[in-house]
Amino acid sequence: MNTLYRDFDSQAQIDAQYNPSLGLGDGPSPLDHYLATAQAARQNLKCVLDVPFGPTVHETLDIFPADDPNAPVFVFIHGGYWRAFSSKEFSGIALGLQPLGITTVVVNYALCPQVSIDEITRQARAAVAWTVRNIAQYGGDPARIGIGGHSAGAHLAAMCLLTDWVRDYGLPQDPLKAAILVSGLFDLAPLRYSYLQPMIQLDDGTILRNSPAFQVRPCTTPTWATWGGAESTEFARQSALFYAAWTASGNTGFLKAQPDANHFTAIHGFEESNSELCRWLAKTLNNSSSK
């Protein structure tokens, strides 16, 4: 029997692995939680919204400054399979980080199918470059910037780690001092055969250019690949695949699931200062050089 990808021979099998909504039972929508925490963050924390970082209307940042100056910074890139959501649903990421003295930057970007994944990757990299050059104006320390993302956002964060920052942006080669990749997608090939294809329109070139697991370079950024223990085996495989490539290049990496989390709750830890996500990020950023 011909297979579509690896040992999958039908779209239904791939969708069962890559559509996390299929596994949800009755109860509140994950989006309801994101919206409630996002609203709480914007109401209760200092914030500067819709700061442009690029020429198009979608290229904006929401910044949640820490109380003290020269603070470490976390750039967060949201998920939604490159075709849904905005920065505004994910303001809640700042709730756990701001009390730890970390400035949070939540990235907005254009969505498929209006733009391609190549263009979204470009926008994510432009957001990082803008942050390195400009975050000092908002009390952030440009020498202590971390990056993270969820699902498609973790893919984009990984693509940022692999950027040739010197050649393409005139920045230090490794400007990021920590990375947390939550439930990421690092091999895009199976998604070509999924329910997502009409929206994200993958072809051979897009997959080749945008599968981080197959283009890892040496990089000094300590990187944690994590996912929810209740997620599908493919999400576990995706993180393990990237971790293997990352460490094979001599890079510092950590691979650890969050035992009780599903795809949507795997980022809830950013809302709690005492969570493992927040504590690891704060420790790693604070241990990095501020020179």
In words, what does this structure look like?
It is built from ten helices and eight strands. It has 291 residues and is an alpha/beta fold. It has a single domain (11-16, 30-287), classed as Rossmann fold, CATH 3.40.50. An eight-stranded mixed β-sheet has the order 1-2-4-3-5-6-7-8, sandwiched between helices. A hairpin with a 7-residue loop joins strand 1 and strand 2. Helix 4 crosses helix 5 (152-161). The longest helix has 18 residues, at 117-134. The radius of gyration is 18 Å and the shape is globular. The model has no long low-confidence stretch (mean pLDDT 96).
Set out the fold topology.
Layout lengths: L10 H8 L11 H15 L3 E5 L7 E5 L6 E7 L16 H4 L5 E5 L9 H18 L5 E11 L1 H10 L3 H5 L6 E7 L14 H4 L3 H6 L13 E4 L6 H16 L4 E3 L20 H12 L4
Parallel strand pairs: 3-4, 3-5, 5-6, 6-7, 7-8
Antiparallel strand pairs: 1-2, 2-4
Helix pairs in contact: 4-5
Features:
single chain, 291 residues, alpha/beta, Rossmann fold, 8-stranded mixed β-sheet, 10 helices, globular
Q: Give the CATH topology.
A: Rossmann fold
CATH superfamily: Alpha/Beta hydrolase fold, catalytic domain
Helix vs. strand class: alpha/beta
DSSP, total strands: 8
Largest sheet: 8 strands, mixed
The average pLDDT score comes to 96
**Gyration radius, in Å:** 18 Å
Oligomer: single chain
H and E order: HHEEEHEHEHHEHHEHEH
Determine the N-to-C terminus distance: 58 Å
Number of domains: 1
Helix segment tally: 10
- State the helicity in percent bands: 25-40%
Shape: globular
Strand fraction: 15-25%
- Unreliable stretches, pLDDT < 50, 5 or more residues? none
Q: Please identify, by name, the CATH architecture.
A: 3-Layer(aba) Sandwich
